[in-house]
Amino acid sequence: MQASIQPSRDPQVQYVLRLADTCLILAQRLGEWCGHAPIIEEDLALTNVALDLIGQARALLTHAGRMCGQQFDEDQLAFLRDEPDYRNVTMVELPRGDFAFTVLRNAMVATFLKLVWQRLLDSRDAELAAIAAKALKEARYHQQHAGDWVVRLGDGTDESRRRMLAALQQLWRYVPELLEGDAIDAQAAASGLGPDWSELRADWMSEMRQLLDAAALPLPAEAKFRSSGKRGVHSEHMGHLLAEMQYLQRAYPGGAW
Question: Which of 38, 123, 191, 228 is the most exposed place for a label (fewest CB within 10 A)?
Fold first, then answer.
């Protein structure tokens, strides 16, 4: 089996990995919908969203590898780290859930990523700004697509509303991790690399409030629970996801099609 790698602990590398891993792991979860969505159009749509996120993750992981002195490439960073070295937010590693859960999670994460990409357009890091310029267009589509389904299901039948309410209660407890900054965020903001995630809180809450109002769904109270995936402390679901995602590269090191 291929040995694990450990990327740089430099705060700027870690900042980029948080975004890269959030995109990568959500894409892995969305890929599980291939062949299982409720209608053919959504089967294709969710797969395309996953491909967009993989593209964003590839660009960010390649850039992170360069920031590490080209010690690692995108594939090594994607597949050869141990669980504690992944920096994605916990929300994206949660099991696939039903369709209501999926579209609500997509709406939450796409809204967050859209706001991040908007701020990163002004990054002092020219490569990161270029990645953001392309990713912003995709995030806007992802947000609109998911938001349309949230409204349709939230203000739909009794069953669709019940499922949306259940998804909202499940997901909302993981929201604080998206909207709270730490030392890595503070360093990124001070250096001009990117925004402190806490700076996005007001805009994210405003956009989500508008969406939930349109879907006739209540805005939940903030939970006291704090998830910690972006610090490398993950849920029990992450190890199972990585076992499946990493198997081929671990079993056949450097394998290529």
Answer: 38
